[in-house]
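> example.struct
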């Protein structure tokens, strides 16, 4: 079975997974700013990752407003690692031309 995961591969979700791979949790506003997307776009990406079982969302009241935190599930962390490994495998199949040479085709 391929490690390629269409749910993770979409650019926004791939970036979210990259952020979550480096942290235990990430706050919604921080992720939104890092991706430079609207609340609604980020919410849709997070919902898709949550529906796949890859992240869990935690809501907490703070300073009179609700804040949302995202974190990988064990399944999500494994799926992201497998997806990255598959991308690396695919990238390794590409023959890189030497300096001064072009692609033949």
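> example.seq
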């Amino acid at each position: 079975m391929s490690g390629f995961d269409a749910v993770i591969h979409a650019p926004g979700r791939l970036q979210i997974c990259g952020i979550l791979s480096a942290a235990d949790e990430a706050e919604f506003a921080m992720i939104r700013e890092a991706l430079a997307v609207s609340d609604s776009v980020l919410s849709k990406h997070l919902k898709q990752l949550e529906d796949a079982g890859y992240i869990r969302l935690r809501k907490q009241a703070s300073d009179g407003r609700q804040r949302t935190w995202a974190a990988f599930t064990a399944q999500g962390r494994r799926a992201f690692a497998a997806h990255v490994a598959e991308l690396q495998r695919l990238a390794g199949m590409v023959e890189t031309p030497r300096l001064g040479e072009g692609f033949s085709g």
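> remarks
The chain has a mean pLDDT of 91.
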